[in-house]
Amino acid sequence: MNVLLMAYGTPYGPEDLEPYYTDIRRGKKPPHELLEELQGRYEAIGKSPLNEITLVQAIRLQALLNLEAPPYPRRLQGPFPPRAPQGPARVYVGTKHWLPSIGEAVAAMHEDGVRRAVAIVAAPHYSLRSVAEYKEKVEQALKGLPDPIEMVWVESYEAHPGLIACYARRVEEAIWRLREPKKAAFVFTAHSIPVAAVERGDPYPRQVEKTAELVAKRLGLPRFSVAYQSAGRTPEPWLGPDINEHLRALKEEGYEEVVVTAVGFPADHLEVFYDLDLEAQATAQEVGLRLLRTRSLNADLDYIQVLKDLVEAAWLRS
Ligand SMILES: C=CC1=C(C)c2cc3[nH]c(cc4nc(cc5[nH]c(cc1n2)c(C)c5CCC(=O)O)C(CCC(=O)O)=C4C)c(C)c3C=C
Ligand SMILES: [Fe+2]
Ligand SMILES: [Fe+2]
């Protein structure tokens, strides 16, 4: 079984920042003020562990796939159907905006003789501004190859019971730390997208709401809400409510404590450490709210098990 595991990617050092930002802006260099602002955000968090987490996710996913399907030599395999999940599993990593790029990963797969693979993004929700763009990059990379690779896509997994259990477990950990759990607010966040994408029928907000609703249901939370974070630095309107405005509104409604879970981001990175742990935390402190941010899924085995389940099911799809 072959897997292409994709994630957003983050710069390895300050010298990578400009080409990284240029890639996010589809080849347009960022103005100096925006680059400086991004540099300031990276300096404030120290380091984004996103690339390391993605690599560990891939290593663990590959190990887990092979653990339950030992890589027997071909002659011992018997009459398995060629698409059975058994056999050596290989997981390749490609990042959308940095290195290894999706193009490099696809080229490596081709070089290794891969002709069929499952493509999955380490983010549970489909958006025209996320998964659709990953797909474009994969298709672009495939175009340049002498032999085709059939990619079976996992486009979204917003309601996977294992994923819901992962988030519920982490919200539960925060509930233990609340002073008055029955009076707390529970907020689920995801990356904002331009309103224009929503108007074009992007299923993203519905999927984010679905994840939030299922986690809340599993925990029997009486109230919960969805807010968006990390809106881009572009003049167009972005989907709200923004987490900072939402925290102010919650305080006005009389809440004293809030648990925030970033359901759109399985892994820690700039927008968890800066936008939630520094910026939203500062807003909460300013208005007098106690904010607890739940632990990310990262490369924890409960999340890797979800990825394993998804790729195995996709591999068996015709
Ligand atoms: C659902 C959409 C998006 C997800 C998920 C997402 C995750 C994500 N983003 C960064 C870092 C940056 N994103 C930036 C801009 C940007 N991001 C999205 C969409 C998603 N990002 C869009 C549509 C844009 C705007 C692009 C443009 O046209 O300019 C930037 C640039 C600075 C900024 O605008 O804030 C950074 C940096 C990470 C690390 C991440 C998840 C891992
Ligand atoms: Fe982004
Ligand atoms: Fe972003």
TrEMBL record:
InterPro entries membership:
Ferrochelatase, Ferrochelatase_AS, Ferrochelatase_C, Ferrochelatase_N
Q: Does the keyword Iron apply?
A: yes
Q: Any transmembrane segments, and where?
A: none
One GO MF term, please? Answer: metal ion binding
**Secretion signal, residue range per the UniProt entry:** none
Q: Recorded E.C. number(s)?
A: 4.98.1.1
Keyword Lyase listed: yes
Question: GO annotations under biological process?
Answer: heme biosynthetic process
Q: Which GO terms describe its cellular component?
A: cytoplasm
Cell compartments where the protein resides: Cytoplasm
Reaction(s) this enzyme catalyzes, per UniProt:
heme b + 2 H(+) = protoporphyrin IX + Fe(2+); Fe-coproporphyrin III + 2 H(+) = coproporphyrin III + Fe(2+)
Pathway membership: Porphyrin-containing compound metabolism; protoheme biosynthesis; protoheme from protoporphyrin-IX: step 1/1
Recite the UniProt keywords alphabetically: Cytoplasm, Heme biosynthesis, Iron, Lyase, Metal-binding, Porphyrin biosynthesis
Q: What is the top-level taxon of the source organism?
A: Bacteria
Chain sites annotated for binding Fe(2+) = H191, E271
A single Pfam family, by name? Ferrochelatase
Function according to Swiss-Prot or TrEMBL: Catalyzes the ferrous insertion into protoporphyrin IX.
**What does the sequence similarity comment in the record state about its family?**
Belongs to the ferrochelatase family.
Family annotation (NCBIfam families): hemH (TIGR00109)
Listed PANTHER family: FERROCHELATASE, FERROCHELATASE, MITOCHONDRIAL
Protein name in UniProt: Ferrochelatase
Organism annotation:
Thermus oshimai JL-2
